Amino acid sequence: MMRTATPREFGMALRWDHVPAWAVARSLVAFARLYLQAGRPWLDWTVGGMRTVSLILSFVFTPNLNYREITSLRQIPLPLLTALG
Predict the structure, then answer these.
(1) Are 15 and 64 in contact (CB under 8 A)?
(2) What is the domain count for the chain?
(3) Cis peptide preceding 63, ω within 30 of 0
(4) Structural domain boundaries enclosing 26
(5) Which region, left, alpha or beta, applies to residue 37 given φ > 0 means left and ψ of -120 to 50 means alpha?
(6) Residue 52 near residue 9 (C-beta atoms within 8 A)
(7) Residue 2 belongs to some domain of the structure
(8) Please, is 6 exposed, middle or buried when counting C-beta atoms within 10 Å of its C-beta (0-12, 13-18, 19+)?
(9) Fewer CB within 10 Å of terminal CB in the chain, N or C?
(10) pLDDT tens per residue across span 30-39
(11) Do the domain assignments include residue 60?
């Protein structure tokens, strides 16, 4: 996302960022339920359902679920990254 040149590219990158967020959320809930024997089944289904709905909505809305519109991007120079590369 740091290397995107246009607001449209940034919106697409942010849209695809919801996929690993969904996987992380589902993995953490599954780990708590299966290995730690903690939590309630209804909570597992609620978290899974809500993350799945947000994933679907992120691909339905343009540019994504987080923003209604991305009008512009601005590059901010980072001194540490400039010195390294």
Answers:
(1) yes
(2) 1
(3) yes
(4) 18-69
(5) left
(6) no
(7) no
(8) exposed
(9) C
(10) 999 999 988 8
(11) yes
